[in-house]
Design brief:
It is built from six helices and eleven strands. By secondary structure, it is an alpha/beta fold. The chain has one domain: Class I glutamine amidotransferase (GATase) domain (Rossmann fold), CATH 3.40.50.
Length: about 270
């Protein structure tokens, strides 16, 4: 597929944000991007027209009940079959921040046995309350998630987080078993790290929310559905990086650039 033929759907809902940053990141590579309100998507039910779906960050429906819960249930009720068909086709889906929460609520992540009818994990209240800060996350994938194949293992991305509920947790009675399952199936994509690249080991603020095993992002077993709490789209351009003024002038691109480059190149190759 030619880059200019790639069609990306970015859904928005009441309370979402950073959708325009995601639009610019994909459009910068020449992809066609439609930013469409969730109600129109529910009406048109045209997910098959797209090569990728992005659920952006923010606070959909004010994070009432739980972060992402209302939007997730609405999507399941209104476009559940279409969404499941899209996932089964192998086309990529990315959820960032609130989008990650939504994918967990819908049962697509972790998704050990495919689409679960109930959440298999949770993104709970951060141990330090609402966090709006720059963090570092290290790419931990070993090849299972094709859309991140352009990143080298150990690659570190500095980008912001902005959430009150983002602490990745697993059921306590199965925590170690499920953690091993995540690693055995190469589903842990990003972990929070310190400035020297070592794991945060639950230290705050490097691990901003107390996430279990410093997990910042995961994929499903097939590597086609990806969710992460940090915002690479908010670090796409060099002038968005926090310390560029110390260098005199910003670099053209920031740490988020390789993330989106890898995804676009994957779609080019795969489809």
């Amino acid at each position: 597929m030619k880059r200019e033929d790639i069609k990306v759907l970015i859904m928005r809902a009441p309370g979402t944000n950073c959708d325009l940053e995601a639009v610019r990141s994909f459009e910068d590579f020449g992809a066609k991007v439609d930013l469409i309100h969730t109600q129109k998507v529910f009406k048109d039910k045209n997910l098959d027209d797209y090569d990728m779906i992005v659920f952006p960050g923010g606070f959909s429906y004010g994070d009432y009940v739980r972060s992402g819960a209302i939007w997730a249930k609405e999507c399941e009720y209104r476009i559940g079959p279409e969404l499941e068909t899209f996932v089964d086709s192998g086309k990529p889906i990315v959820g960032i921040c609130n989008g990650f929460q939504q994918l967990v609520e819908m049962g697509y992540l972790p998704g050990w046995e495919g689409h679960s009818l109930y959440p298999e994990a949770a993104l709970g209240n951060s141990t330090h309350g609402y966090q709006n800060r720059w963090i570092r996350m290290k790419y931990e994938g070993k090849g299972n998630c094709g859309m991140l194949g352009g990143l080298e293992e150990g690659h570190v991305i500095q980008c912001p987080v902005a959430h009150g509920e983002g602490r990745f947790i697993l059921p306590p009675e199965q925590r170690e078993e499920l953690l091993n399952k995540l690693y055995d199936q190469d589903m842990v994509m990003f972990r929070y790290v310190k400035e020297d690249g070592s794991y945060a080991d639950y230290d705050w603020p490097e691990n901003p929310n107390g996430a279990y095993h410093d997990i910042a992002g995961i994929s499903n077993p097939e590597g086609t559905v990806l969710g992460l709490m940090p915002h690479p789209e908010r670090a796409y351009y060099g002038y968005l990086m926090p310390e560029w003024t110390k260098k005199g002038a910003p670099e053209p691109y920031g740490d988020g650039f390789p993330f989106f480059k890898s995804i676009v190149e994957y779609i080019e190759r795969k489809f």
